[in-house]
Design brief:
about 725 residues, six-stranded mixed β-sheet, five-stranded mixed β-sheet, about 40% helix
Length: about 725
């Protein structure tokens, strides 16, 4: 495949700046500048692109970096036959056109010097500063002679750790891979395929997460051409056979301009052709394509408020497709992307997708983190030097990236627990495959980012790390939920632990107060089933490590036996002198379905054998009896204070729970007439107690005491259908 054939994205690159002839650049690099005071033509293109975004940039450091790169790479050639200096120049030009600041461009010019020439990292640091040296080191590959087959995954690990401290490392790597992919046609087909797969599995998702859409879309097209040549060729023919596809979009764009001009809204309306992969996806989704399907309309305005003004005008003057509306301004994507998405139908019925954003939003949408410039410093360093030129000493000030996304922080955390290269490689691929993120709220109100599809298991390990081994359940939006519950964007998650369902806040090692468990119960731990519900590598690695360290498995989650177990047989009579009915010789029996006790409002119904069954008035059995036209019998409570009641305790299973519950009941002075424990289900256990109380007034205190037992989340009077006899 030729280099041109491996560049299907060329049709959609931004207009106004033609591609530079790399062979001419190589000749210019070898010949050098024509005068002492003039930049070489080779670096001149980079300088022009850089000045377009940063008019006041100091180009002296770029000139020095170019001189070092050109002299160190002199005599080296790429497989395509071009002078090697054309590669760092092309990579730097890509970044310059996206608006990268001076430090990034300096490191980009030098990014292969330490790896492929005699230049040392110490030399780079002494001449260009610690920041430039850090970026160059971040993208420098590890030697295969030292790491063998693990060299590639370990290089990625090293690069990700460096990216965690400075996201500009990954910006340079993405531009480096883009230029390599553009010229991949000189490689053997099997090597093209291997590089394309790594690009697809790792670098394209990273470009998406860092918001660098300009690089991501072209990388997608290049990979598409190599890995799916037949689909690519069909898509290429489809685009070629519709040369006038943009006519419909041109007409709608002109209508948009007229509407917005009459509304007094200053806006720029441009047509954005879809790249190859996007056309392919739309053709699969919609079948036969219309002219408006080959592109989108982009509306650029000055202020956020203008975005909504444009939306209102377009929805008023055209027919909106409501299902296509998305507001990524009020709720930005996790990769910094902001825009309003909608679709409207013209008078001829053609539907056009519309993107509405400010010029600044557009810069970030195209260049992502690259558009942020230097996120670490925007003023002079303590020694008076400009940090953007790389004079900041790494040892003098800690690097902190205020824009570090949550997914990157999570990735850096779990990679530390994965020393094995193969496990890291597969975990990284799985993590990056989850291309959408949700935000959930913790019990303390703080926000936590998780990948879409994450469960309560993932939330537990994201918040508590290994302490989550003791987690036994959660409340999601106030309702009890199992750990397997899949979370949705905006959910509030309150995690519950075996030893304390009330979640006493404890300080974390970072000094931030977090709600969480104290010491973990030695008898608790995750079960193998947790792996089925874990979506994040951090959770899966922690669970797998625990299970490996405890091959005997977690301790039983509940002490009770599997079958219902009577503790004490109920041999007492079914009558009680506490409830009185005005029927001679009638036997009174308290209904087991609602277990009435003083001072409940009650009523009675006669059943077989001269027995009157007493129910609470709100019992469902009362409604059923009345619907059958059964005559209620008045019932009153006698003077006796003692009563019998059946309580149901809902709890999470844990060791010694039955003992703790019976102790709480005994402390309140109640006698257990009978008790049954149902088999555990999804780590939940139901206990049913029939209790004799010396005084009915003590029932509320008894129920509170039972609810206070760790692991118990609800205690209620038994409610079940009773036979009508």
């Amino acid at each position: 495949m030729s280099a041109e054939a491996a560049n299907p994205g060329a049709h959609s690159r931004r207009r106004g700046r033609p591609r530079i002839d790399l062979r001419r650049l190589g000749r210019a690099a070898l010949l050098g500048p024509t005068t002492r005071d003039r930049l070489s033509d080779a670096i001149g293109h980079v300088a022009d692109a850089h000045r377009a975004h940063h008019p006041d940039a100091d180009l002296a450091i770029l000139h020095r970096a170019y001189v070092l790169a050109e002299s160190s790479h002199r005599g080296q050639f790429r497989k395509s036959g071009e002078a090697y200096i054309t590669h760092p120049l092309a990579v730097t030009l890509i970044l310059a056109e996206l608006g990268a600041e001076t430090t990034t461009l300096t490191a980009s010019l030098l990014h292969d010097t330490v790896e492929d020439t005699d230049v040392t990292l110490h030399q780079v640091k002494s001449e260009f500063g610690a920041e430039v040296a850090y970026l160059v080191d971040g993208v420098t590959k590890l030697e295969k002679v030292d790491y063998g087959a693990a060299a590639e995954p370990e290089t990625f690990r090293k690069m990700l750790v460096a990216t965690g401290n400075d996201v500009r490392v990954m910006s340079i790597k993405l531009a480096d891979r883009l230029h390599n992919m553009r010229t991949l046609g000189v490689m053997r087909p099997e090597k093209q395929e291997r590089i394309a797969k790594v690009t697809r599995d790792f670098l394209i998702p990273l470009a998406e997460r860092l918001g660098v859409q300009a690089l991501k879309t072209e990388l997608e097209d290049l990979v598409f051409a190599i890995l799916h040549p037949e689909e690519y060729e069909r898509t290429r023919v489809l685009i070629a056979e519709n040369p006038t596809a943009g006519v419909a979009l041109d007409a709608m764009a002109e209508n948009f301009r007229t509407v917005l001009r009459e509304a007094g809204i200053a806006a720029e309306v441009v047509i954005r052709p879809r790249h190859f992969v996007s056309v392919h996806r739309v053709s699969i989704k919609r079948g036969e394509l219309r002219g408006t399907d080959f592109g989108r309309l982009l509306v650029l305005v000055g202020e956020d408020a203008d975005c909504y003004a444009v939306l209102g005008e377009l929805h008023t003057c055209f027919t909106p497709v409501i299902s296509e509306f998305k507001d990524f301004i009020a709720a930005p994507k996790f990769n910094l992307y902001q825009s309003l998405h909608t679709a409207v139908a013209g008078t001829d019925g053609a539907v056009a997708e519309v993107l509405i954003r400010t010029h600044q939003m557009h810069r970030v949408a195209e260049a992502g983190v690259i558009a942020l410039g230097n996120p670490y410093a925007s003023t002079e360093a303590p020694d008076g030097t400009d940090r953007n030129t790389g004079a900041l000493d790494q040892d003098d000030e800690e690097r902190r990236d205020p824009t570090r996304p949550g997914w990157l922080s999570r990735l850096l955390e779990w990679q530390e627990s994965t020393p094995d290269s193969d496990a890291f490689w597969s975990s990284l691929r799985a993590d990056l495959a989850q291309d959408r993120e949700i935000s959930v709220f913790r019990a303390d109100g703080q926000m936590m980012g998780l990948p879409a599809g994450a469960s309560c298991v993932d939330a537990a390990y994201a918040q508590y790390g290994e302490r989550a081994h003791a987690c036994i359940g959660a409340r999601v939006n106030g309702r009890l939920a199992t750990l397997s519950t899949v979370l949705r964007d905006g959910d509030t998650v309150h995690l519950l632990f075996a030893h304390d369902t009330r979640m006493t806040p404890v300080p974390s090692t970072a000094g931030v107060v977090q709600g969480g468990p104290g010491a973990q119960d030695a008898g608790s731990g995750p079960s193998p089933q947790w792996l089925d519900h874990a979506r994040t590598p951090a959770a899966r690695i922690a669970i797998a490590s625990w299970l490996k360290a405890h091959p005997e498995g977690a301790a039983p989650q509940a002490a009770p036996p599997r079958r219902s177990m009577p503790v004490t047989p109920d041999t007492s009579p079914s009558t009680t002198a506490n409830a009185v009915v005005d029927l001679p010789e009638a036997t009174v029996r308290l209904a087991g379905c609602c277990t009435p006790v003083p001072p409940d409002a009650v009523t009675g119904f006669a059943v077989r054998g001269g027995v009157v069954t007493v129910h609470r008035e709100q019992c469902a059995a009362v409604t059923r009896m009345k619907s059958l036209e059964r005559r209620p019998i008045p019932v009153r409570w006698g003077d006796a204070a003692a009563c019998r009641v059946t309580l149901v305790a809902e709890s999470f299973g844990r060791p010694h729970l039955l003992a703790d519950l019976t102790e709480a009941i005994a402390v309140e002075g109640a006698a257990i007439v009978s008790a049954t424990v149902e088999p555990p289900s999804q780590q939940r256990v139901r206990h049913t107690y029939t209790l004799q109380l010396p005084d009915a007034a003590g029932l509320p205190a008894l129920m509170r005491a039972m609810r206070a037992v760790p692991g118990v989340y609800d205690v209620a009077r038994r409610q079940r259908p009773a036979p009508t006899g």
